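Re: How this chain folds, sequence and tokenised backbone to follow
How to read it: Take the token row as a discrete description of the fold.
Start of record: The labelled sequence and token lines come straight after this line.
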Amino acid sequence: MTLKQSACIFLCIYTIPLSATESDDLFALSFEDLLEVQVDIASKTSETLTSAPSTITVFNRQKIALLGIHNAFELMNFVPGMQSTRGDWVGAVPKDHARGVYLDSGNILVMINGERLNESSFGKASVYMPYIPVEIINKVEFIRGPGSALYGSNAFLGVMNIVTKTHHNEMSIAIGNVGQVGATSSLNHQFNANTHVYANMAYYHKEGERYEQGVKDPLESAYLEVGINIDKLSLSGRYNFTELNKFLNLGGYSNDNQHRSENHFLSLGYDWLDSDSSSVSSKVSYTHHEIQSAGLIASANALLNANHDFFIGPDWHTTDLKINIDASHTFYNGWSLNSGVEYSHAEQLKADVRTNYFDSSRGEIIVEDPFYQGGIITVNDFAPFTDLKSSFETKSVYGQLKIPYSEQLTLFVGTRYDDVKDLDSKLSPRISVIYQPALAHTLKLQYGESFRTPVTNELYSNDDVTMGNPNLQSEYVKTTELVWRYKHRDWHLNSVLFYNQLHDFINIVPHTIHDNMFTFENQLDDINRGIELDSRVQINSDFSVEATYTHYFDVPMRPTFKRFASVIANYQYDQWMLSLNSVWRDQVQAHTTDHIFDQSAYFLIGGAVSWQLSAKTQISLKVHNLLDKHYNVYDPRVSNGAVAGVGSEYSLHYQVKF
């Protein structure tokens, strides 16, 4: 039985109706509701976009459905100050651009339901979980700017929290061009007042388009999540795998490139106290990450003593164990205190290598014909990777005080201290002053500091691509933001001026001794300033338009977009909903070793058309890159700097609710 058949049978078995739910109108939320949506990511207290002590962007499930996207990482393209593109490192996973920084080192913390995905070997969430289906998502919250005062390392230039569905009964199937097929299901059942269970399942496959390099970009992914809440106890588990073969890996295009990642997650939480004024809760979570990858390093034509292409890559396993206790208390005068302690133990359990050349007698990779293995194999206990099998033990404590001085003025003061054993310790303070002189105007003055500790790949790697640097220190940023929010009837405008002071940034640089190799250094100190704008106008009850624009005043670190924007237009007519969007990116120029990369500014157009067949059924057509724009994004490790963007993709979706 194939994986596709198993997934289909599994979904069909579990689509027996449990309970009926009311139909969700695509635009069930009013304009005012959208502005006052509750967010928890900014302060671990329930705040609105206006009262939150951070710069926040939120996408609800209705808005996500109308963007015509498949992967949660694509949402970054509609967030001021953020972009997501493809890169070369492993399996062409998504790469994050945030506030002028594009260093591929996990500077955005990605979480699912408040649990971090970034791990200790590569640091980036998207290496181990590059595909997160949007169909299982209820909402996504973004912090634009520092978040280490609450979330520690990696919450550096932004935080992305994906909240999955827990109160839906629905299923959908999809088919599209480039071999797209997909199926999802979300289930829940309330057994009694104290017991609730839920599950999310998704499967997606595409053959991919063919590129001029002679390869396709196939994708296969499965996601399973289950949870149960019994009175004060909550238990949840998650599994996913993703395969991204062929396209591009470690700078080389080849049909033999391989990339597979798997994640296993388990969490147990308990609410010890939950009253009107106080709460105490605890949680224990465990995550196991696996990656098996191999990319083309050199072609046979470029090798002197070999008749086959040379491939290499990691076969690594890491684990994360986290225990935390959170508490909150509201005092008689209205002041609120949130605090917590956390212990985490991250460990790299496995650090093997995948390669097609190996001398077993000497335990070395030797690219010569006598040592060709007939294909890509896994070499266990590879001696040069021994140091990668290390652990990070972190003890953290945080506290935040909310002080409402008056109806117009609120002050947030908080800090977090993280001690990473034998590596580093950081204090991450933040302060936010929120002033509302009139109902239509809100001003925020915010200051925060964030950090990112180096990961095992940066500290201890030792292969034919990179050489680690065990003397690395944490990189950190100091951020000041001035925010103005204006809201008047059916129109709102947000503007953010930010000032980043970047220190000890870890950069990948050519190795001073070994040719054709890279290492890592705390090399960069810089200043990055810019403005972020977003606005939404409800022209009438059926038609709305929203837009974002980002402009950096300084040259970005590493060539990335200095200006970019997005526009989303939604129109509802009877049972039809039409949404069109466009992402605009400015020109990027860069010099590589042998080439000059020059990509002119371009637009990408997408959207969705939805037809509500009945209160329970809906058909949607999703489109990405409608005009099939051919473009490249810059990656410094590709010889000519160019990574091809995704061409036109369209898919038809049928959804039923029960």
Summary: The CA atoms of residues 74 and 574 lie 29 Å apart. The first helix runs from residue 3 to 13.
